[in-house]
Amino acid sequence: MKIKLEKLEVQTRGDKELIDITPEVERVVAESGVRNGVVNILTTHTSSGIIVTEGLPCLELDVLNHLEALAPDEGDYYHNRYLDIDGRLGFNAGAHLKSIIGGINAFFPIEDSQIVKGSRQCIYFAEYDGPLCRTYCVQVMGE
Amino acid sequence: MIDFHTHPLLVREMLEREPDLARIARDVFYIRNNPQPLETFLLELDVSGLDRAVLLPIDASTTRGCQIYSNELIAELCQMSDRFVGFASVDPHQETAVDDLERAVKDLGLRGLKLSSPTQEFYPNDAELVYPIYEKAQGLSIPIVFHAGLSWEPRAKAKYGQPIHLEDVAYDFPNLNIVIAHFGWPWVLEAVMLALKYPNVYIDTSCLYFDNPKDFIAFVMTQQVPLSAIEKSLRHKIVFGSNYPRVEIKNMVKAVKSLGLSDGCLKLIFEGNARKLLGEVIR
User: Using H for helix, E for strand and C for coil, what is the string for chain A?
Assistant: First the structure.
């Protein structure tokens, strides 16, 4: 069985945004040589996410607005305190909660070297506390 | 619009070149976030609606055995983006401090001085130790940003940063503009007292010690000091500062803008007063 892992950086440019990473995931799958298997996508941060939805700008806004309604930035959070592990205050609980609600990973089967997904499905890196240079992992496993 | 208080400690390009900076950031300055490309800093300014940022080093050669950024590295960063305004730092315990400052301004093009008395362990009104530096700064017509109040650095004691020590400086150097950083927190009223009385004393907004930026800034600028005092008496004496990367610039901008100050007052805080301190405008 082949296992290939790529750690990819993405420079987010806004406070909150969804960035379509589908082409990057497809590239990693194509270069892996795996014909049949699976691909996993994972963000390595707790204030960002991986989301799969239809690739439309209106939906991107709706997703971010809905997550903001569920986990507002300015909530009354216990996380609003000094964190000596960081040397700064941790007042981004809203971003952490959005990450939990929206999810941090996605999985797709691979068949005949192609990702098996619906024609409308896009894979997004979700930034909830940008702009930052972020890292996500794409791991391909199979034969 | 200008952020008058940032520390470029997590700029990845510089950390890759100067590996000891990572240790200094982590163990001396005590900021432990992951490094970021320079582009992130500039994007943070964009997202915040700001044009420029003042970059502050701290020369702690004597007390910590290191420079929390050297003047040369600050000057290099300023070469990498015209959105940066570089300040110098000198070590008051070093005999070369006065010459170092002159060189930083005249040769490196730096436009102000940063001193952090809790880090550098001196009292700002120690005339024998630091007055020659102030005389040089006054002669060079550059402002000094003083750390004031609480410091998160583990070894930095707040006693060196009590704003009242700056009264002697303001009084003895009437042509030297000084900025009391972090609103002098928790000695906010001392800082305000000095800014009210002395024409050469300013305050920056870079304070966040509990809760979140919006609530903490509201606590300081509406409860510890009435908002009307900011609007009417201190509008020409406050500059916006974030203390990035301890706080994201975007969050501090949002906090200050949410207070309910007039547009004219906000324009002074975010731009006019800073430009005056930098000698870009007369008033």
Answer: CEEEEEEEEEECCCCCEEEECHHHHHHHHHHHCCCCEEEEEEECCCCEEEEEEECCHHHHHHHHHHHHHHCCCCCCCCCCCEECCCCEECCCHHHHHHHHHHCCEEEEEEECCEECCCCCEEEEEEECCCCCEEEEEEEEEEC
